[in-house]
Write a structure and sequence with these properties.
With 252 residues, this protein is an alpha/beta fold. Helices cover 39% and strands 24% of the residues. Helix 5 packs across helix 6 (152-164). The mean pLDDT is 90. The structure holds adenosine-5'-diphosphate and magnesium ion.
Amino acid sequence: MASILSVQNVNKRFGGLKALDEVNLEIEPGTVHAIIGPNGAGKSTLLNCFVGRLTPDVGTVTFEGHSLIRLAPHEINQLGVSRVFQTPEIFGDLTLLENVMIPYFAKRDGAFSLNAWKPMAGQNDVRGKAEEMLADVGLGEKHAMVANSLSRGDKRRLELAMCLVQQPKLLLLDEPTAGMARADTNNTIDLLKTIASRGITMVVIEHDMHVVFSLADKISVLAQGYVIAEGAPNDIKGDPRVQEVYLGGAEI
Ligand code: ADP
Ligand code: MG
């Protein structure tokens, strides 16, 4: 099957540090693809190369046949790629509803300005869509709250609603359960499973093995900028190289 996202020979240096070294990756449509690896392996750097925050020194990233190299983040977003970063990026002083309406307009119009947006926020159809997305992630009751007042887990859910309102084809998640308590993590796993079941392709960076093995169809393991192993969860679990590099020899 043709890949939805194809990464070929991507290299990225920060000064003397090789953060990504000849990375190749094929993401198949309709799958959940996890990228795991120890801290500093290059996972976030790789994700940033998918969304236009970083440009690889060498190599290509292609989404549905479009090269993403040198496209601006909003252009990549308009092609159908939405992302949740490692550090929550929400509008803390705005309500949840406003937070979800902003990415809707940003995707539709390719750019966003608060002045242009305010008069449009009254549109009932958009408001309705935003309410629906908040209900979808379990935040329907809280739509009028200010985003800063949410718990960490709820902020993550809000970010997901902000992605889903854009109806992405590809959803990129950088450590979606970071800092969550177990109950919140389990809720997030269920939510991500529901999203995956709708056919949205997902790339999930995650350090929590419980999350990875609950969700992933395929796993790529990064270490020091290299993809050292790739395969189905059961193959990865038993791979001695992965156990060695990723967990210092401990069982996954
Ligand atoms: P991971 O997400 O797997 O923990 P990162 O992609 O964040 O790893 O980082 C990979 C390596 O690149 C690390 O050694 C990190 O310190 C370095 N790095 C990441 N971003 C930058 C940057 N903007 N400038 C310099 N070094 C960076
Ligand atoms: Mg990271």
